[in-house]
Design brief:
391 residues, alpha+beta, 5-stranded mixed β-sheet, two-stranded antiparallel ribbon, 14 helices, 13 strands, membrane, RT_dom, AlkB_hom8_N, methyltransferase activity, transmembrane
Amino acid sequence: MNCSVKRFGILWLSFFSRAGLWSSISSHHLKSFFSPLLDPLQFAYRANRSVDDAINLALHFILQHLDSPGTYARILFVDFSSAFNTILPALLQDKLSMLNVPNSTCRWITDFLTDRRQCVRLGKNVSTIQTISTGSPQGCVLSPLLFSLYTNCCTSSHDSVKLIKFADDTTLIGLISDGDESAYRREVERLVYWCSSNNLELNAQKTVEMIVDFRKVTAPSLPLVLTDTPVTTVDSFRFLGTTITHDLRWEPSISSLIKKAQQRMYFLRQLKKAKLPAQMMVQFYTAIIESILTSSIAVWYAGATVRDKHRLQRIVRSAEKVIGCSLPSLQDLYVSRTRGRAGQIAADPSHPGHRLFEPLPSGRRLRSIRTRTSRHKNSFFPSAVRLVNSL
């Protein structure tokens, strides 16, 4: 490819990506083109996929496994060092070619990533210009998709180990039975080897593990070691924006949401003092307060305690008193959003959760998901099936 064509290609991709126009012009085309090629357990930059889907599926794997006696789960939350900055354009091109991506598209992407010139500005000081041919530009809409394609071949080879990805957020879930952790540890070793072979650096200091174990009699678990560094075991972790605890209770996550919502109630009261019209206050509430209260509501609401649901609803009632009109209840919002999400998953055969919405021979109802514990029963997929069947 000659210099003028290459320069035009770089300017074209760079302009649309950095100006935010890439999303409106080509994002849908890219998603529809690359989605069939991506690992089903990669949830980023996919049509009809969301952060909640990744969390719900991870919890379903764990809870379904824990329904059997003598089982527990080990969850490794992997952290990469400067993930997007480690992409090797030549290696990415090879990976794209293996996915049967057209040669012209491979070359355009490779040229976009190579020989990029950048500098750093701090106040009035500007560094010397450097030429970079590694990584993907920061803030580029294309970067998460390129990283997803770069790590597409990083998958688990064992049924009892699930590797869930959301762009560079990678989670390895080991479903342990009868104390046999050999498959889980082998997959951890494979992940470490794969990263070293693909120029990805694992940050062992920030990589943590959580053990979910409800057995009455437990034995101390041997710690994992990554690159000669023991992995820290934690009781809770903020997984894709939602706090997951080792006992799978939602109080910490709900308390955090309530605290944020209460802080924003101050501004609603100030708007009331300023005599803002009720309609505008409702809009403010919906955008600033309700959005916090309903953050990932399909993940945790069914499993929340009655006390926590009352705590959440009290904020809604307080907002109603300030505004002077009724507002949608959290129960209604949960039902509508869960049914809507269930409908989208059921209509998408490529979604990894699609098989869980299996219609009965009559076609009028879905087959119920068997559960043995209330934890599993109140998780997203069993609850969504019940809500769809109640229509």
